[in-house]
Design goal:
binds adenosine-5'-triphosphate; 12 strands; magnesium; 5-formyltetrahydrofolate cyclo-ligase activity; alpha/beta; globular; 4-stranded mixed β-sheet; binds the ligand Nc1nc2c(c(=O)[nH]1)N(C=O)[C@@H](CNc1ccc(C(=O)N[C@@H](CCC(=O)O)C(=O)O)cc1)CN2; nucleotide-binding; metal ion binding
Length: 207
């Protein structure tokens, strides 16, 4: 990719981030909860069908899909919930096995994160059953746009390097409202591709 193309993509990404943030913020609190309930229901069905005994997810902030019903469903079922703790100095994430709301504490960016004195760290070399990730926008081809930290791109790149040759990487699935579905996102080579996404209409595999 040339320098000019790279700069052009970053400018388009910035514009899309602003537009998608505005669209998501425009949902009323009631509508957000209603849609989040449906999205979590589809995610639970998908995890149950996939037989995932563990999965990575996120604790919502800003106007993201509220994952609370999904996390509570998993805790009731004995499915292991793995949540990220951001390290802004090098934009990396550590993951922890979290058994309930009491194991979270306020962290970077105002996001509630696992409290290392309460939750156990999830071993880096152990792949989860599935990875559910937040985002500002998704497309039908596995594209995803985040807040621009590159946190998940970096994590997924590391995971791919650690997965033994011949083994499959766990499914990587975006979680979002239908209104976050874009035509085709401008992507750079480092952007991780998703296997699918879940919105209030259900699960969709990437084309
Ligand atoms: N709920 C949730 N947890 C998550 C993520 C997420 O997207 N959602 N992350 C997924 O990555 C990581 C945190 N990543 C973040 C990256 C950037 C910003 C942020 O506030 N960015 C500024 C712009 C900063 C800049 O331009 O330098 C902003 O959006 O205003 C917040 C979180 C880990 N945990
Ligand atoms: N694997 C990687 N190694 C090193 N730097 C990376 C990697 N992936 C992304 N980056 C850097 O991170 C920055 C942000 O990337 P990008 O705009 O794609 O973030 P994002 O996917 O929107 O954010 P997030 O994953 O935090 O939600 C870029 O400057 C990029 O160069």
């Amino acid at each position: 990719m040339s320098e000019v193309e790279g700069t052009d993509i970053r400018i388009r990404k910035r514009g899309l981030r602003q537009a998608m943030t505005a669209a998501r913020e425009a949902l009323t609190g009631t509508e957000r909860l209603r849609l989040s309930g449906r999205i979590c229901g589809h995610a639970a069905d998908w995890l149950a069908a996939a037989g995932s005994g563990s999965f990575m997810a996120y604790v919502p902030f800003r106007s993201e899909v509220d994952t609370a019903p999904l996390l509570e469903w998993a805790w009731m079922r004995g499915i292991r919930v793995i949540l990220p703790k951001s390290e802004p100095s090098d934009r990396s994430m550590r993951f922890f096995l979290v058994r309930g709301w009491g194991e979270l504490a306020p962290g970077a960016y105002g996001i509630r994160e696992p409290d290392p004195s309460k939750a156990a760290e999830w071993p880096k070399e152990e792949a989860p059953g599935a990875i559910l990730l937040p985002g500002l926008a998704f497309d039908r081809y596995g594209g995803r746009l985040g807040y621009g930290g590159g946190y998940y791109d970096r994590y997924l790149e590391g995971l791919c390097r650690r997965v033994p040759a011949g083994a499959r990487r766990p499914p990587v699935i975006g979680i979002g409202y239908r209104l976050q579905l874009a035509d085709r996102l401008p992507l750079e080579t480092h952007d991780a591709r998703l296997d699918g996404w879940i919105d209030e209409e259900g699960f969709h595999g990437a084309k």
